[in-house]
Every structure is written in structure tokens, then in C-alpha cells.
Write a structure and sequence with these properties.
By secondary structure, the protein is α+β, with helices and mostly antiparallel strands. It is 38% helix and 14% strand. The chain contains six helices and five strands, in the order ββαββαβαααα. The chain has a five-stranded mixed sheet with strand order 2-1-5-3-4. Strand 3 and strand 4 form a beta hairpin. The longest helix is centred in the C-terminal third of the chain and has 20 residues. The chain starts with a strand and ends with a helix. The mean pLDDT is 97. Bound molecules: FE2/S2 (inorganic) cluster (2 copies). The site of one FE2/S2 (inorganic) cluster (FES) has 11 residues, from loops.
């Protein structure tokens, strides 16, 4: 089957089996290996991507369901110069990255949350990342990093 979707702002075309998951399509056909496979059954969030701006588990979605739509993967999240963006930088500064396996999904969950709720409480942040498991950090540093980014973005909006 021929797939045509917009990935990280660019139109992409590829042939793949009609029943392929979006996760395997991204990794095996588009070579976007930043999206990780953890559980493969919708429980860990390692495979999180944004589909038309909404956080989804790409292991549970068929690539066919994303056909003609817009997908953002971790490769699409960066600063204008290609380095880490403010949220990714905060993950580094707050020690929120340990083994790193959950981090692509966590960053996308954080971006999805901040996109829909620019003023999240810590509870909102915990709820926003509730579908993303991290076996290393205990979550505290991740919540700190998202909270600090929210505050900085609010300040920037006030000064712009
Ligand atoms: S790999 Fe998709 S939720 Fe775990
Ligand atoms: S940093 Fe290792 S699973 Fe989250």
C-alpha cells in the first residue's frame, strides 16, 4: 500500500504493508528511530507521537489511520538551530534523562500538554504524562522540567 503523510512538516511517501503499525512504519520505512518500542501494546508511552497535534501511542495506530494526516515525532522537536528546544534543555538541566528510553515519548507528552494547557499545575503535568512510564527517574525531575518550561514560556509570552 502507498502511504502519503506529513511527517515533521515534510510530505513523505512510502510503500508498506497495509496492516503496518504507525510505529513500525516510522521506524522501519521512514527510518525515524527516535520513536521507541517499549511494550508494543499501548501501556508504556515510549512510542508516543503527535497525530494532528494529539498525543497517541503509535504502536496502537495503523499507519493507514495516519495516511493523509500530520505526524510529529521526536525528530521534529528541536530549537531553530537544530539543537534541543527549551523543554528538551530543561529535561537535561533537571536530570530528567537517565537511560533515556522513555524520553522521546515524555517530551512529546510534555509538548502536547503545554500546547493544550500553557499553565499546568503539577497535578496537570502528572496527568499529562500518566500514559508514559519511566522506570528510572521516579518522575519528579520530569515534572520539574515540564513545570520550569511552562513558567519560562509564560514569561516569554509576557515579554513578547
Ligand atoms: S510501545 Fe506503544 S505504548 Fe508501549
Ligand atoms: S529515563 Fe529510563 S525509562 Fe525514563
Amino acid at each position: 500500500m502507498k502511504f502519503e503523510l506529513t511527517v515533521n512538516g515534510a510530505k513523505m511517501t512510502a510503500e508498506a504493508p497495509a496492516d503496518i503499525s504507525l510505529l513500525n512504519f516510522l521506524r522501519d520505512h521512514l527510518h525515524l528511530t527516535g520513536t521507541k518500542e517499549g511494550c508494543g501494546v499501548g501501556e508504556c508511552g515510549a512510542c508516543s507521537v503527535l497525530l494532528d497535534g494529539k498525543l497517541v501511542n503509535s504502536c496502537l495506530i495503523l499507519a493507514a489511520q495516519a495516511n493523509g494526516r500530520s505526524v510529529i515525532t521526536i525528530e521534529g522537536i528541536h530549537a531553530p538551530d537544530g539543537g534541543p528546544n527549551d523543554l528538551q534543555q530543561a529535561f537535561i538541566e533537571y536530570g530528567a534523562v537517565q537511560c533515556g528510553f522513555c524520553i522521546p515519548g515524555m517530551v512529546l507528552a510534555g509538548e502536547a500538554l503545554l500546547g493544550s494547557n500553557p499553565h499546568p499545575s503539577r497535578r496537570d503535568i502528572r496527568e499529562g504524562i500518566a500514559g508514559n512510564l519511566c522506570r528510572c527517574t521516579g518522575y519528579q525531575q520530569i515534572v520539574d522540567a515540564i513545570e520550569a518550561t511552562a513558567v519560562k514560556r509564560q514569561e516569554k509570552v509576557r515579554h513578547d
